[in-house]
Amino acid sequence: MRHLYAALNNTEALNNENDHIMVTIRLQGTTRQRTINAMIDSGATEDFMDKGFCSKYNIRTTQAKTIREVYLVDGRPSAIGPITHTAKVPMDIGSHRELAIFQVAKLPNHEVILRMPWLKQHSPRIDWGQGKITFESERCTTWCLKQSPTVYAIPEDEAREDNLKVEFGATQSKKDQRIQVRLLDPQAGIPTRGSAKAAGHDLYANEERTIPAQGQDVVPTGISITPPKGTYGRIAPRSSMAVKHQIAVNTCVIDSDYTGEIKVVLANMSDQDYQIQKGDRIAPLIAEKIVERDCYQVPKLGKTGRGQKGIGSTGTSKAQIYEISARAFGKFYRQPDTTTGILKYKKKEGRISLESVNISTELAIKSGKYQKESKLEEMVPQEYHGYLDVFEEEEKTKLPPHRPAVDLDIKLEEDKDCQSKRFTPSPRTTWKNSGTTSSKTKNEDG
């Protein structure tokens, strides 16, 4: 095997192929204890722990003060380096307990390697032939030991096989995407899916509750959960309860490290109380993926197309408005991917809207309904502007007042002919026009 050493004070190496043994250790991670087989090797100067092993089992690491390279015994740089972090973790070997410090590296064949620093610190008596380790130093008997000072090594092939089983078990647990459910009440309901491809699992009420009108209440479920790795639990509203009874959900996030009872806050937006019975489906539970990252401060953020534009800034653009003929309108609004319509300005609301278009709208446009109305001065020729009052709206829609003894009274009866009379004007009646007034004079012969 190749022996490694770090660029530190002590540099020692042994070339004996039998200078290492395997021993079972227990490491305490941030969430649970992990049992693994470590190699005790007298052929190098540092204690190492695999970087991937730390990440997988949540073993906390600390950034090293200085970055150090790792070299092979012949002086060549090793692929396991450089050393950028250390791990400080409680470690048990049999009844021997200590707080061990490891250099975190990319180990190719082992998860943990105990070397010269550990051997010098505890000075165990190792029987290489029988694979027996005895902790009998003054330090160990005073501080480290709880029971028997002797532990036994295991064959390396068996140790590696056990490590592979641990690795395979961890891989399988990663692939297992099921939600772990613990029943806090034996009568509580395990979440179920309404269909094979439903996004969520329905949560069941474990107690009766009355959700008051325009109020809310907390409904217990009697269960606790652990969502799959890399996910959190989201509680969504049930569509049927939302549509029919205006019941919404006011809480929605279940952190992956929360192991207490799941309780659902239901809000009643209606004007009537809503009754929840024990065993009712109240909300779906959805396991959603999450990126677990830390926050850090920066002096400024990168530039984006949106920038600091807030609510209502997206989905809008400058409108291009063109005035077209009725005939052109009839062609345009039938074309696909074309938005054509009638702009209407609502003065009270202070906004412009686009009126929907159909065949009736097109006919109305052709008839002139939506055409721009011209002013009276523009429609009447200039030479007749002295008579504009004749063309006023009121004049053309209302009859003049009745004049007794002047207006002729013609009575019309259904299915009867209209009576006709002949009226003869006075002889030699002429009209003279002077400016904008007229007068009538009577010329007689002789």
Average per-residue pLDDT, rounded, comes to: 76
State the oligomer: single chain
User: CATH topology of the largest domain, what is it called?
Assistant: Cathepsin D, subunit A, domain 1
Number of domains: 3
H/I helix tally:
9
- Cα separation of the termini: 155 Å
Shape: elongated
Strand order of the largest sheet: 2-3-9-4-8-7
CATH architecture of the largest domain: Beta Barrel
Roughly what percent helix? 10-25%
Strand content: 25-35%
Kindly provide the name of the CATH class of the largest domain: Mainly Beta
What radius of gyration results from the CA coordinates? 47 Å
Q: State the total count of DSSP E strands.
A: 27
Low-confidence stretches: 1-17, 431-446
- Structural class of the secondary elements? alpha+beta
Describe the largest sheet: 6 strands, mixed, barrel
CATH superfamily of the largest domain, by name, is Acid Proteases
Write the layout of secondary structure elements.
Blueprint: E1 4-6, E2 20-28, E3 33-41, E4 48-50, H1 51-56, E5 61-68, E6 70-72, E7 83-93, E8 96-105, E9 112-114, H2 116-122, E10 125-127, E11 132-134, H3 138-144, E12 150-152, H4 156-175, E13 180-183, E14 201-204, E15 209-211, E16 216-220, E17 223-226, E18 231-235, H5 239-245, E19 247-249, E20 253-254, E21 263-268, E22 274-276, E23 281-289, H6 326-332, E24 342-346, E25 351-355, H7 359-366, H8 376-379, H9 393-397, E26 429-434, E27 437-442
Parallel strand pairs: 3-9, 4-8
Antiparallel strand pairs: 1-6, 2-3, 2-7, 4-9, 5-7, 7-8, 10-11, 11-12, 13-17, 14-23, 15-22, 16-21, 18-20, 18-23, 19-21, 24-25, 26-27
